[in-house]
Predict the structure.
Amino acid sequence: MCRLFGQLTAKDEPAEPWLVGAGRSLLAQANASPETAQRDGWGIAWYGPGGRPHVEKGLRGAFENGERERFTAAARASSPPLVVGHLRHASNPLGLPSDQLIGLVNSQPFDSHREIFAHNGSIPFPRETRPFLGVHEPQVRGVNDSEVLFWLLARNTEETRDPLRGYAQTVEDLVRVWQGLGRPKGAPFSGLNVLWASGPQELWAFCLWTGDHGAGLLDPARRYYEMSYHAAPHRLVVGSEPFDGERGFWTSLPSGQYVRAIRDGGHVEVTRGAIPIPTALELGPPPT
C-alpha cells in the first residue's frame, strides 16, 4: 500500500520541506520500518510550462541508495503552485510475478495531457473493470490496478464535468463490478484514497476505504487510510498522514470525506464535504 502527498499554494512555496525535510516527510515515510517500506517506486509531479504535467519517477524505494538522491533532486526541482508525490507499495490483484510489477510505467503519479492522479489502495478486479473505461481503455500501459482506476476516474470526470461527481460515479462502477461477480469475499476496493488535479489551479483529495488495515506508519494512534491535511489562506497540504508531529496543525480527513482547494487571486480557498455515494450502493455482507 502507498503513501500520498499533495500541495497547492497561492504563492511560490516549495514542496521540498514536506517531501524531504520535515520529521515525517514523504521520504521519512518511505522506510518507517522494514515491514512497511515503500520499495516499489516513487514519483513527484507538478505542472510545467503551458500547464502540462511533468512527472519524475523512480523504480525502487525512495530511501534506497541512488534513489534517495533522485527523489531529493526531484523534490527540489518541483515547481509550485501544485505538487503531488507518491510512494508505491505494490498491490498485486492479478497475481503476477514480482518482477512484472515493478517499472516506471507502473510507478505513480499517473498523468494525461492535463490530469495528475495518485492513489493509495487497491481494486481487486482491474481486468473486469477495464470495460468501464470506454475510449480510455487502450491508454492503460502497465499492470498497476491504480492505472485502471485513474482512467476510470478520468472518464467519469469528463462525462460529469465535475471531479466530485466523477469520483462518486467511479465508486458506483467499482461496486457494480463487484456485484456483477456475485459479491465475492472481500470488498470492491480496499482503499480509494486519491489525489486529483486537472490543472495547476485546483487540487482534490478523496478519502474512502473498507475494512481495517492497521495503524499509520509514523503515528500508531491513526488508522492506516485516515488522511490528514493542513489548510491555511495561502496553501493546502494533504497526505496519507501528518508530515510532522505538531499538534493542532493537522486535521483528520476520515473515510467518506473530500477536501478541495482552488487558487483564487492571492489565496487558496479550501472546502470540505461528504462524498455523495448513494446509500443504495452500500456494500452489505457477502453471500453465504
